[in-house]
Design the sequence.
């Protein structure tokens, strides 16, 4: 039988204010879980009417926005704009620099926007590439059914491979991202994870056990998984009906993380140069002082 990873750390994501009136539950990136290479931050956000994330810059990371409810508009200094619908994902590689805005869509009878935003560090050699996007609407994310199409388990393959299904998303640096839904208590799957990769689970509905562990992990917790030789994946069992979580795995990076707000580089000198570039409007930030989004103003 395949050996399963186990839970080695549990972090409760406490809801706090962020941005203009948004509420976020942050686990990775909080004081409790500062860095989990290659992952820099995980926010479970809820954006009320009139709130959002107006124009702001990025450099040196990928931001992955996955909508659980409602939808969110985005617009950037490179002329890219669109809407992420419920069940859709935007995988943005900020590279050497971009300014963008992320604003929720509010309308009568439409759920308030809720979703997950994950920041993934870029390998050093890709820090200064041109910005790029990979976007999938809800119908374009492939779905695996480990127990068959009529079974009670589904895996939305946002990136990577699960049970013979592969996503078209190709991140810079290894990263697998799955949204798993288990309708019945007792449902279980074994998800392969590449050897040596960092992995975690974030749970927002129901409860699960991992491996042979008997303790039930509840909603709004991030579970860091072990990474021992011979552990080929994670065996996950639903402890209640209607359980939902993401399982994310990434190739760890042997590099230093120097972060200053939305800028993530590998040395203090690179951060200082980033600030110079931003203030001077050069090297990726040419429109830093002239561009304004339509949605953020």
Sequence:
């Amino acid at each position: 039988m395949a050996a399963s990873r186990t839970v080695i750390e549990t972090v409760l994501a406490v809801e706090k204010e962020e941005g203009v009136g948004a509420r976020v539950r942050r686990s990775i990136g909080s004081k409790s879980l500062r860095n989990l290479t290659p992952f820099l931050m995980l926010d479970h956000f809820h954006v009320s009417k009139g709130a959002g994330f107006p124009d702001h810059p990025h450099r040196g990371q990928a931001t992955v926005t996955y909508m659980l409810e409602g939808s969110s508009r985005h617009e950037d200094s490179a002329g890219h704009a669109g809407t992420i619908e419920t069940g859709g994902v935007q995988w943005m590689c900020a590279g050497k620099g971009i300014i963008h805005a992320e604003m929720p869509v509010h309308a009568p009878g439409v759920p308030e926007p809720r979703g997950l935003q994950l920041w993934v560090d870029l390998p050093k050699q890709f820090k200064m590439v041109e910005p790029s996007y990979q976007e999938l609407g809800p119908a374009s994310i492939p779905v695996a059914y480990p127990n068959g199409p009529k079974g009670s388990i589904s895996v939305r393959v946002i990136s990577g491979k699960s049970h013979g299904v592969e996503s078209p998303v190709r991140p810079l640096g290894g990263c697998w991202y799955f949204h798993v839904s288990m309708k019945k208590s007792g449902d279980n799957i074994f998800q392969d994870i590449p050897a040596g990769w960092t992995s975690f689970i974030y749970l927002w509905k129901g409860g699960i056990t991992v491996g042979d562990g008997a303790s039930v992990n509840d909603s709004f917790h991030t579970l860091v998984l072990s990474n021992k030789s011979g552990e080929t994946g994670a065996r996950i069992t639903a402890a209640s009906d209607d359980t939902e979580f993401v399982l994310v795995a990434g190739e760890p990076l042997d590099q230093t993380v120097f972060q200053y707000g939305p800028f993530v580089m590998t040395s203090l000198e690179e951060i200082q140069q980033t600030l110079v570039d931003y203030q001077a409007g050069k090297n990726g930030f040419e429109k830093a002082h002239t561009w304004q989004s339509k949605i953020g103003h």
